Amino acid sequence: MKKRKLLNPIALPVFLFMGAIIGGTVLLHDSCSTMHRTISWIDALFTATSAVCVTGLSVVNTGTVFSHTGQVIIMVLIQLGGLGIMTFSTLAIYMLKKRVSLTDRIAVGQSLLHDPKFHLGKFLVQIITVVAIIELSGAFMLFAMDSRDFPPFSALFHSVSAFCNAGFSLNSDSLMRFKNDWIVNLTFMALIILGGLGFSVIIEGTSTLSSFLRRRNHGRIRCSWNFMLVVKTSLFLIVSGWICLFLSEFIGFKEYMPFHEALLTSLFQSVTCRTAGFNTVDIARMTNASLVFMIFLMYIGGAPGSCAGGIKITTFRVLWAFIKAQINGREQVVIGKYAVDRESVNDSLTLLFFSAAILFVCVLLLQFTEGGDIPHMQARGKFLECLFEAVSAFGTVGLSVGLTTKLSAAGKIIIVFLMFIGRVGPLALVASIQSTRTKLLYSLPEEKVPIG
Predict the structure, then answer these.
(1) Phi and psi at residue 412, in whole multiples of 5°?
(2) Distances (CA, A) of 55 to 58, 192, 227
(3) How far is it, in rounded angstroms, from Cα 183 to Cα 115?
């Protein structure tokens, strides 16, 4: 029984990610990976976890501390992490459509091969091909637009980091030097959005666009309900984030910024803070209102089957529809023309509770490790910094207000845990719940409980 549990498909992505992190830690600690002296084991572990979990938080400067070999290792770890989570989560979505239990959904084995239309080898080749085309196209665009700031390796590194939603940059100021460059910003935003939409959405969008062009506007092109759910919710979050960040940062702001630059920087921050971790402005100098709203966006994250983290936009949409249904006194949770099944609603509520509980405990621990001996009057702002850093790690975003580089050893371990649990935890959590769930053939008498 123990051996069977160890090889349980639920644990497969967990073990694979752990193995990649351990291997990356050993390689990054080697003297060949750094410019001058080797970094500590804890810093190597932190960087490897951040790369594999495509987060982007860093305790050392990637461009100056690591050698070319170390930067290549980081890029490979980012690619492995991005492809890994995209493959596992896309397989889960695929099996969901086939009405297979989530325990079997995560397995890359017999349960998938029961479908005669499914071929695992072709599926993996298709994912790798699509990812390679997008990343190479992004690298070519960056190199063609600015070959001085984006030589071939830098262009490829940033393209991989952007599509995988990692947020690692070889520049010490991330992308702040390009804050008024529309072409560079739009290229990064396109890569980030594509990486955050997910493989299945990209494939369906590509086939839909191809069908539309072949028909030459004749006939109606139909998209799946899941496609429209992901695209509409993503667009809503991007636009609402754009408006809120623009209002909180550039309306009555103390420093003058041209209108077009203010529009661009607020749009970029809205796109990147949901998952990517690049920044074109100093996050530590943003207003508290902006930071709070960014925490909200980071917590939501991107779409299932993508490189993005967070509780996912589908979870957010289901929870919003659930609240709306409760207010209207409706039993079914409706999104568009369809009602969401009760199991999905329960999973969304469970994920919300457990993720909030994990963040609460970790933020509380950070209060102890990063200033537990300092009175409140001297530690003003520390809570928001810890909360921002914790949500950024859990959502595998990678944005920082500057606390990451100042973390104690215990604080780094906490953030490492959050990055790992935020990357593979939600998938494993929902799978574990569904695998242990048993359907009762009876119901107990009900009683009303006073609420509120």
Answers:
(1) -65, -40
(2) 9, 13, 25
(3) 44
Of 353, 351, 331, 352, the closest CA to residue 342 belongs to 331
Which residues, in sequence order, are bridge partners of residue 66? 34
Going by pLDDT thresholds of 50, 70 and 90, the confidence category of residue 111 is: very low
Q: Is the dihedral of CA 247, 252, 257, 260 positive or negative?
A: positive
Q: Residue type for 147, please?
A: S
What would the pLDDT profile of 153-206 be if each residue is shown by its tens digit? 999 999 999 999 998 999 988 899 998 899 999 999 999 999 888 877 888 888
CA 286 to mean position of chain CA atoms: 22
Identify the pLDDT of residue 90: 61
Length of the chain measured in residues: 452
Measured distance CA(412)–CA(219) in Å, rounded? 56
Please answer whether residues 268 and 185 qualify as being in contact, where contact means their C-beta atoms are separated by less than 8 angstroms. yes
Q: Residues of 140-172 as b/e, b for ≥16 C-beta within 10 angstroms?
A: ebbbeebeebbeeebbbbbbbbbbbbbbbbbbe
Please, which residues have CB within 8 angstroms of residue 250's CB and are 6 or more apart in sequence? 257, 262, 266
pTM: 0.86
Largest CA distance in the chain: 72
C-alpha to C-alpha distance for 285 and 288, rounded to whole angstroms = 9
Q: Is-contact 343 430, C-beta < 8 A?
A: no
Average pLDDT, rounded, for the chain: 83
Looking at residue 325, its amino acid is A
CB 49 within 8 A of CB 423: no
Give the number of other CB atoms < 10 A from CB of residue 38.
14
Least confident of 11-25, 356-370, 431-445: 431-445
